[in-house]
Amino acid sequence: MNKTLKIAGLALAAAMAWTPVQAQNLLLAPAAPPVHPAYYMYERFSEYLAEETGGAMTGTILGPEVVALPQMKDALQTGLANVGNALPLYFAADFPQTGVAGDLALLGRNPYAMGLAMTEFGVTCGVCQDEFKAFGAVFLGSGSSNVYALITTKPVRSLDDLQGLRLRSGGAPYSRWAENFGATPVNLPVGDTFEAMSQGTIDGTMASIVDMLSYRLVDIAKYVTEVPLGTYHVTSNFSTANDIWAGMSVEQRTQYVRAANRGNLAFTDRWGYQLPAEAMTAVEATEIEMIAPGDDFLAASDAFAAEDAAAKAAENELSAQFAALVEKWDGIVAEVGEDPEALAVRAWDEIWSKVDFSTYGM
């Protein structure tokens, strides 16, 4: 406890001492431990920041014992953190308009496309910008998880196998998918998944394969059905405190956003590709069965996802805008390829080069 308080005190003192005319060592809060992809992206961001600014800006990463996710809003507003990993869906009351993009999670088939669609959505959505300003931060882009699948203790080889199955749901879109096919969605914290599966309270989860390692589901799961369900992409990776952003010159902001843009793609590369590959290696060393669903299963799931997105787009203009951006970035990723550096260049050209950094976020 004393160590935590000491670290927090030092962080607060450093934040209060920061001014635009001094060497800018920013306090970075991923709100996650070193094994988490959010911490990884902050390590990369710190490197990119020094590169893009020629060392004029640097970063010190704070551990979750200093700033945890529930503290992010207060941390950014009080100066305990200058830059933070804020999740709009976690602060749903603060981001009702930004959060509509999460209701189209079932569209997610490519992590890069989803992260970039969310980035462009956040940058160009006026009401979303207002929400971030009220939150005390500037939005500088998003990233995405890999595509979710079914991780279960019972085999799911066909649509019939979903009948009556109890599945953990991470959000409304996944609950709608489960109910449509006769399963029962169960809302519980992701950290409770292992215990719930081991006790038989639930039969499985709609989740990232990375949960095999993050929550040790590799020790309890028996099957993985590779039906693409969607992504988690409503992130704000480098939410920058309003006063810190206001203290930067236009040139500094441009350099800073170049670092953030590269960090966004590094995050998706880690969460959407590197970690799933590591998780699959772990799964292959067990007796967990990987199930490839039939064409009828896949077609029905994709059809529901499309219908669900269309229904949401029809009732909400912002949802329609986000759906169009997903289609746009699916096409761009197909053209450019799944290369994070090449996609960072394209993201700059398509999104950030069109931003007026003298007024953005102000």
Automatic annotation (TrEMBL):
It is found in: Periplasm. It comes from the Bacteria. The keyword Signal applies. It holds the Pfam family DctP. Keywords: Periplasm, Signal. Its main location: periplasm. Residues 1-23 form the signal peptide. The keyword Nucleotide-binding does not apply. PANTHER family: EXTRACYTOPLASMIC SOLUTE RECEPTOR PROTEIN, PTHR33376. NCBIfam families: TRAP_S1 (NF037995). This is C4-dicarboxylate ABC transporter substrate-binding protein. It comes from Sinisalibacter aestuarii. The lineage of its organism: Bacteria, Pseudomonadati, Pseudomonadota, Alphaproteobacteria, Rhodobacterales.
